[in-house]
Amino acid sequence: MWNEPYLETCCRSALHRLSLCDETGRPDGSVAELKDARCLERLEQLGLASHAGARFRLTEAGVARHNREIMKLGA
Predict the structure, then answer these.
(1) Which long-range CB contacts under 8 A does 38-43 form with residues at least 24 apart?
(2) Which residue stretches of the chain are H helix?
(3) pLDDT, tens digit, for every residue of 38-60?
């Protein structure tokens, strides 16, 4: 049974871009500055990203979800 919230295509893309940033993370910004700001905020609400020091970074749950859903590892 599927028990995880569905990620829209834009949020999956934001999750992947966030994974490419490694520990550096992505800077925060307004919607006008970052087109995926809303997706980054949603990822944070879902526990897949954290926001600290004006940067978004993947959480352990975000890494696991990225590996499973985007990279298709462990599927």
Answers:
(1) 39/8, 39/10, 39/11, 39/13, 39/14, 39/15, 40/14, 42/11, 43/11, 43/14, 43/15, 43/18
(2) 9-20, 37-45, 60-65
(3) 999 999 999 999 998 899 999 99
Which CATH architecture does the domain made up of 9-70 adopt? Answer: Orthogonal Bundle (1.10)
Residue type, 28: D
Amino acid at 52: A
pTM over the 0.70 mark: yes
User: How far is the CA of 9 from the CAs of 6, 14, 49, in angstroms?
Assistant: 9, 9, 16
Count the Cβ atoms, other than its own, within 10 Å of residue 62: 21
* C-alpha distances in Å from residue 51, one per residue of 2, 67, 68, 72, 75: 27, 20, 22, 26, 28
